[in-house]
Write a structure and sequence with these properties.
The protein has a domain at 17-42. It is 41% helix and 4% strand. It has helices spanning 9-15, 43-51, 56-62, 68-82; strands spanning 23-24, 35-36. A two-stranded antiparallel sheet has the order 1-2.
């Protein structure tokens, strides 16, 4: 199976700036869920808005403390979370 060059991890690291340092996880905040720069705004909240059809511009207007890099961080976090091995157990 041949992979497209953009799906290769080394290609991604070379071509993409990491914004993941903008994602914070604090035990006493939002139940320990990932938030944006210590604010009580979860990564999931931004992803839900985007999935519901909100544009990045609309989100940035509604949450004036956000920056475009924060939304990029949400995309990167979601991508990293989705990138894991799937284990299938065979019945005994």
């Amino acid at each position: 199976m041949e992979l497209h060059k953009t799906s290769h991890p080394l290609y991604f690291r070379r071509m993409s700036k990491s914004y993941l340092d903008r994602i914070t996880i604090e035990l006493g905040k939002c139940g320990g869920r990932p938030c944006i720069r210590g604010y009580r705004l979860r990564v999931k909240d931004i992803l839900d808005l985007l999935a519901a059809g909100a544009t990045e511009t609309e989100i940035l207007q509604d949450y004036e403390f956000l920056m475009p890099e924060d939304i990029r961080a949400c995309y990167q976090y979601a991508s990293a979370q989705a990138n894991h091995s799937i284990l299938r157990l065979q019945p005994a």
